[in-house]
Amino acid sequence: MSSIVPTDLTDTHWQALRELAVEAMTRAYAPYSRFKVGAAALVDDGRLVSGCNVENASYGVTLCAECGLVSELIRTGGGRLVAFACVDAHGRACAPCGRCRQLLNEHAADGMVLAMPSGMMSIDEVLPDRFTAADVERVVGQQS
Ligand code: THU
C-alpha cells in the first residue's frame, strides 16, 4: 500500500484530526496553567496518533501534548507524520511551541502540514533553517 502524502489530505482527514485533538484535550492534566491542549496527527500509513499535555508540580517537568503524541507514534510502530492539528480548551487551533516544532520535525514526512491559528502551514514554514540529524552527522560522522 502506498504512503499517504500531504497532497492526499482532504477535509475528512482534517475533520478527524480536529475531533481527535479535542477528545485528547479533554484528557489533559493541566491543574497549574489550566491551559488544556490536545494534539493529533495523521501518520503516512493512515494511523491517527494523539496526546494531551501533562503538567507537574515541578513546572519545568511538564510534558506538552506533542510529547504524548510522538510517544504514541513510536510505541505504535513509528512512521512519518503527514498532518498535525493542535487545539486549546475552546477547540481552536493552537500553535505548537518551538521545542515541539523540533520534536515533530524529527518524525515529519516531507511537506508535513500543520493546522496553525493563521491557517495551514508546512513544517518548512514553521521551522525554517532547522537543526537536523544531518547537522549531527556532519560533525560526528567525520570523527574516527
Ligand atoms: N503546551 C502544549 O501542550 N503544547 C504546546 O506546544 C504549547 C504549550 C502546554 C504546556 C502547558 O501545560 C500549557 O500548554 C501552558 O503552557
Total of DSSP H or I helical runs spanning 4+ residues: 5
Number of extended strands: 5
| Biggest pleated-sheet summary | 5 strands, mixed
Which series of helices and strands comes N to C?
Answer: HEEHEHEEHH
How many domains is the backbone divided into? Answer: 1
* SSE class: alpha+beta
Strand arrangement across the biggest beta sheet:
2-1-3-4-5
CATH topology: Cytidine Deaminase, domain 2
The name of the CATH superfamily reads Cytidine Deaminase, domain 2
Low-confidence stretches: none
Helix-strand layout with pairing:
Elements: H1 11-25, E1 38-43, E2 48-52, H2 65-75, E3 81-87, H3 98-105, E4 108-116, E5 119-122, H4 123-126, H5 133-140
Bound molecules: tetrahydrodeoxyuridine.
Residues 30, 33, 35, 37, 53, 55, 62, 64-66, 96-97, 100 line the site of tetrahydrodeoxyuridine.
Plain-language structure description:
By secondary structure, the protein is α+β, with helices and mostly antiparallel strands. The protein has one domain (6-140): 3-Layer(aba) Sandwich (Cytidine Deaminase, domain 2). Helix content is 32%, strand content 22%. The chain has helices at 11-25, 65-75, 98-105, 123-126, 133-140, and strands at residues 38-43, 48-52, 81-87, 108-116, 119-122. It has a 5-stranded mixed sheet. Strand 4 (108-116) and strand 5 (119-122) form a beta hairpin. The protein is globular and about 50 Å long. The termini are far apart. The mean pLDDT is 97. The protein binds tetrahydrodeoxyuridine. Tetrahydrodeoxyuridine binds next to helix 2.
